[in-house]
Amino acid sequence: INTGLEFLEKLGEKFPKKPTMPHVMVNLIKTTVMLRGKDNEAIENMPGMKDENKIAAMRIMADIASSSYWATPTLFPLIIMRMVHLSLKHGNTAVSAFAFATYGVIMCGVLGAMKTGYKYGKLGLLLLEKYNAKEWKTQIYTPIYCLIVNWNEHIDKTLKPLQESYHIGMETGAIEFACINTNIYCIHSYLSGKRLVRLENETKAYSQSFAQFK
């Protein structure tokens, strides 16, 4: 996280040293204002991002997002909202799909705005398809199918994408997110009433792969 923040500052994207809830609330208000009046189609059709520094900053923020989620919870939403701000101001990249989808998680998990969160989850899928960004697919599937769809559709709808993303993640090197997604796949399978004998074997196989990749 510290290394990422150091490089981000050099790229013109500075974050508070000790982020607090007031920082989060100010950014949440700013993001809400910036998104006002923009539907998914308008955001999807924005031009592509051209500024190389901003493109690099987007990639670095996406790379440290997961670590910040666990280690610095007040930094995590600031990172996601900054990615949304950059996309709205400078245009979209493939990484914008992760930004908008994860903003949807904030809507669902923090504000309880499930329908709004679902809207941004679907926007993430639209941008993923538009940029044909296979290398980001597993990471983008994490917020959508682990943390958004299950609040808005039957949990069964999450199973195939989560399982599919494991193989894609192994192919593209997104091992952390491949493991997260299949962990959630096992939990969702249990909650959906999948036959336990088969599920036990699947869970054991995935658990062994998690251990292998530490």
Describe the 3D structure.
The structure is a single chain. The protein has 214 residues and is mainly α. It contains 11 helices and no strands. Helix 2 packs parallel to helix 5 and helix 6 runs antiparallel to helix 7 (114-131). The longest helix is centred in the first third of the chain and has 20 residues, at 52-71. It starts with a helix and ends with a helix. The mean pLDDT is 96.
Secondary structure topology:
Elements: H1 2-10, H2 21-35, H3 40-44, H4 52-71, H5 75-90, H6 94-109, H7 114-131, H8 134-147, H9 159-172, H10 175-191, H11 196-212
Helix pairs in contact: 1-4, 2-5, 4-5, 5-6, 6-7, 6-8, 7-8, 8-9, 8-10, 9-10, 10-11
Uncertain residue ranges: none
> Which percent range describes the beta-strand content?
under 5%
How would you sum up the global shape? globular
Cα-to-Cα separation, first versus last residue: 20 Å
Q: Report the order of strands and helices.
A: HHHHHHHHHHH
Largest sheet: none
Rg (C-alpha, Å):
17 Å
Average pLDDT for all residues: 96
Kindly state the number of beta strands. 0
Structural class: mainly alpha
Fraction of residues in H or I helices: over 70%
Question: How many helical elements?
Answer: 11
Characteristics:
214 residues, mainly alpha, 11 helices, 0% strand, globular
Condensed summary:
This protein is mainly alpha-helical and 214 residues long.
